[in-house]
Structure formats: C-alpha cells, structure tokens
Design goal:
4 helices; 9-stranded antiparallel sheet; Multidrug-efflux Transporter 1 Regulator Bmrr, Chain A; about 220 residues; disordered N terminus; alpha+beta
Length: about 220
Amino acid sequence: MLRCCVKMCMKQLFKKTSATRTIHLGLIGLMFVTALAVIAEAEMYRGYETPPYEVVRADGNVELREYQPHLLAEVTVRGNRSSAISTGFRTLANYIFGGNAEDQKVSMTAPVAQTPGADGTWKINFMMPSEYTLETLPEAENPAIRFTEAPKERQLVIAFPGRGTDRNLTKHAEKLRAHAASEGLQIAGAPRYYFYDDPFTLPWNRRNEVAFLVQ
C-alpha cells in the first residue's frame, strides 16, 4: 500500500511546479519515516527485541502475520498453566542472566510464549537476540533448555490488555477461531499464548496475545 502511494507521488512529482514539488517530496519523506516507524514497532516492544514479522492484514485487534525465522530458547514443563510458565520462565531467565557455560548475559526479549503440549506439558520459550546464531549462543548448563529455529510461518493473532488469565486466554482463542472461520482461514494446532509484560505492569498497560498457526 505504502509502495503504491510513493510511486503515485513520484509520477506526479515531475508534473508540478517547484513549490508543489517541495510539498510532494515532504510527503514522500513522511511516508518513508512512517514505514520505518511501523517496522521498528514490529521489531521492538518497550525496548525489548521481538520476533520479526510483517502484518499481512489487520481487522481491529486481529492480525494475520508472517513471521520470519528466528532462534528460540525453550523448555518443557509439567503442571497447570500458571505454575508452568513461572517455572519455565525462571529456568530460561537463569540462562540469559549468566547461568550458562560462558557466564555470559544475554539480552531479554519479548514475548514469553507458552503452548500446551501432550500429557499435561507446556512449552515455554522466548526468542534469542538476532545477533546470535545456534553456533554463537552460550552453551546452556541446564540440559532442559533446548535451542531451536522457528521457521517462517503465518499466524493469526489477537491482542488484548488485562491479565493473562485462563478465562481471558480461552475467550480470545474462541474469538480467533470464529474470525478464522469467517475469513476462510484454516488454523492448526493448539493456541499459542504470548505475554509481553512483567507481573508488575498494571493490567490495562499489558499486552497479551493468542495465536494460531495458519496453514
């Protein structure tokens, strides 16, 4: 959309007077700044790096996103959802705070992701900073931590503020299923829960998301 607007402006630019050209150049510059701001917003959240994605289309608080490959640190935890994410996050946080073979600190990213697995297990993960590769990441001392590369994929995502309670997550997962059905999108797998803020953030300032893989 933005590319089309810029092309139209460029075509008209050479048909205008010098004064009008100045205005058009200013508009084109503003478009580029806006585009860069959108990209930056997609890659950062309150100073934390996030997985790279492009919004294919949006409808209110629902987005169809195309994620690019990125590295994940992940653990599998048993228990109920709230205790599992707490345990999983502590394990991964210990790694990035220096609990690794190199005693090296790794920058925190967002969000912390949680996905239900089989037999009452939960997968907890978050992205490793983009400066690393599988070869350059500090070795984990805890054998429960795995490093994997998330593939390029499309996800249908709904965002909402407030607390990430079981009730809120279930409600928004159902909204997402209904949206997918109305748009003719085929979703697969279990819902994925994304939590962007720490527990000390006021509920109305929090960003939570539920996502499904789109086939």
